[in-house]
Give the backbone structure.
Amino acid sequence: MSLNINLDKILIIDFGSQFTQLIVRRVRELGVFSELVSHKKIRNFHIKESVKGIILSGGPLNVYELNDRLFDKKILTLGIPILGICFGHQILSKFNGGRVKQSKHREFGLARIFKKNESLLTKNFFNKKINKVWMSHSDQVYRLPKKFKVIASSKNSKYAIIENTNKKFFGVQFHPEVTHTDNGFKIISNFTFRICKIKKNWSLKDQKIQLINQIRSQVGSNKVICALSGGVDSSVVAQLLNKAIGKKLYCIFVNTGLLRKYEENQVIKTFKQRLKMNLIYVNAEREFIRNLKNVSDPEKKRKIIGNLFIKIFEKYSKKIKDVKYLAQGTLYPDLIESRSVTGSQTSKIKSHHNVGGLPKRMKLKLVEPLKFLFKDEVRKLGLELDLNKEIIQRHPFPGPGLAIRMPGVITKEKINILKEADFYFIEALKKHNIYHKIWQAYAALLPVKTVGVMGDNRTYEYLCLLRAITSEDGMTADFYEFKKPFIQEISNKIVNSIKGINRVVYDITSKPPSTIELE
Ligand code: XMP
């Protein structure tokens, strides 16, 4: 699926590497538009004049498996510069008369490459002739394709960087898009500017104006509704629409009673009072707690919350009358994963709560202005739209809220305890300037009581779990390593200030095998 953005671009053909989205982002970070298409869909993708360069990504396939269904070789005859990365490098080699085979030494992780020849692709890339690069391959090129030259080699990969300057074909066995590769961005930047000769054309300042104009022409004078959660994506969508159509936008904010402490006050203050939006505040706290009574199964909790949310949303949008559009914060990774790339079926881990089920039932047309942006781009766009940093740089918060941070049954008492613990934790992270080093952090309340001693008295209270992770995109994550004084301070604060908790534990699992949320 083409995004229909009429800008010169680098087209990334995805062969399924876990780093492909990173390539798209790296090109955009250079200020140049780039778009991703699956290798299986490339046949139907109209390669317009605006495609100034092509990058073939890495991937788990073997070049000898590639048939016409899996890859359209016509790409190689268009006269457009091509950079092949890892598996892409092997494709370029094989289809130009080189040979690829399984290597004796699989290379995963850091390797050193040595400069052999000068190239436009490696201008300012080498530090003292040797660079550390990130390799992740088991096959490798073992015979150089015709009319190609070796630019760099490693101990195991003789053809670590190769080029054919006539055809403007370049291949790198390693991954320049990952930060572990020294100066990797130089390879992508040289390919983009020196070889494809694209001019900078991608800034979120320009995008802001274009998106506002596009929304105006899409929705005309019709009414649009938007489910506002106070999170980054829905806040940016709401503010874009607010700038584009003002009072024709109706935002519905549902207080499920499962929000973080002071969340509802903050949302009302920002969106209703400061940004003067049409904000409908629905306090459905009691309804949610009633419906969740005695439910402890994680999936049941998620379904109950999702369905109730949709019911409330439908009820209030009917009250507004004559609504034609629903605005959603779909991002580019959502679009890639759901509609265009490999189509592979991954097993369902959790039923995500979002408003995806709404348009079909309500016959609304969708407005998805963020659908070609990555999360970090959405954050930058938010700043361009005068949203304050407080909102833009917030950690993600799941739709089902505190319900999935409280394994077991949900009670008002537990919610109150958890809200306090989470508040102290997050405030402490901010006070110690650690909040922005962490991708997501929260407190959870475990359904076990343990014995403690306070003063001379025995206590028997709940266990509080703290989780803080670093991540690029939430797909994989590692736990954050706190210094002892911090973790000690927050543990003392929680146990001493909150009646109901007498023990604090820190979650040190990564994702996988754990997930970020507990349920
Ligand atoms: P997991 O727990 O699957 O979470 O590792 C990955 C990221 O997704 C968030 N998350 C959700 N976000 N609705 C959302 O909008 C949901 O139902 C939901 N469940 C998990 C989670 O907070 C983390 O950032």
In short: The chain has three domains: 9-195, 204-392, 411-506. Residues 339-346 have pLDDT under 50 and may be disordered.
